[in-house]
Amino acid sequence: GQQLNQSPQSMFIQEGEDVSMNCTSSSIFNTWLWYKQDPGEGPVLLIALYKAGELTSNGRLTAQFGITRKDSFLNISASIPSDVGIYFCAGHLLQGGSEKLVFGKGTKLTVNP
Amino acid sequence: EAQVTQNPRYLITVTGKKLTVTCSQNMNHEYMSWYRQDPGLGLRQIYYSMNVEVTDKGDVPEGYKVSRKEKRNFPLILESPSPNQTSLYFCASSSRQGDSYNSPLHFGNGTRLTVT
Questions:
Q1: What tens digit of pLDDT does each residue of B81-99 get?
Q2: Are B11 and B86 spatial neighbours (Cβ–Cβ below 8 Å)?
Q3: pLDDT for residue A109
Q4: Where in chain A does DSSP place strands (E)?
């Protein structure tokens, strides 16, 4: 099946540092989504991207939908301890008349105070 | 409050004993889905439903059943659980926009299942 390659798998950073993670695929997606999962909870949507080239911000978070529609990145500026969690990218794919949402394997972020 | 509610949050059971994990959403969403989350494997889709009485297999449907008799409910059934189904399970729902289901998923808080 389709795969999203999400990197890095994990990150250990100091509070105040900027963070960048990305997802790539060999498939073309028509929507990219970024989710965050806090320990013991379900993923929560951070940013949704609907157009190729779109750059969207949500507070300290910025995400972009790649021009080729095969990739996306998420940046977090000036990290704080509550940014700890697992970040997932997800791509929405139209294939042969059906629709599918494909998830990356996640980036686990640890922020040291 | 708009939410997806799963029950139970934690469940420990023995091999072969049938169980059901319930999922209910109060947002009138057409689309509902079940995922399992395992270390290093991310979120994998088990089954999904695009509307009442319509269900389809996801990537890892073996050993699971679902039903969608009402719009708000989408229970996950394990007829004969096995230890390899020990996992963290998430139910999710989303609305339909026109002909597309690309609106973001809302997730429940998860059900941690242990099968001994």
A1: 999 999 999 999 988 765 5
A2: no
A3: 97
A4: 5-7, 10-14, 19-24, 31-37, 44-49, 55-58, 61-65, 71-76, 85-95, 98-103, 107-112
The pLDDT score that the predictor gives to residue A97 is: 64
How many Cβ atoms are within 10 Å of A56's Cβ, its own excluded?
Answer: 17
The pair of three-digit structure tokens given for residue B52, joined into one six-digit string = 């009442």
CB-CB under 8 Å, B4 with A103:
no
Residue A94 pLDDT greater than 80, yes or no: no
For residues A84 and A10, what is the distance between their CA atoms, to the nearest angstrom?
11
Q: Measured between CA atoms, how close is A84 to chain B, in angstroms?
A: 17
A21 forms beta bridges with A74
Total Cβ atoms within 10 A of residue A86: 19
Residues in chain A: 113
The phi and psi torsions of B83 (rounded to 5 degrees) equal -55, -30
Interchain CB contact of A97 with B (< 8 Å):
no
User: Which residue in this structure is represented by tokens 């007829």?
Assistant: B79
For residues A23 and A5, the answer to whether their CB atoms sit within 8 Å is yes
Q: Are A75 and A81 in contact (CB under 8 A)?
A: no
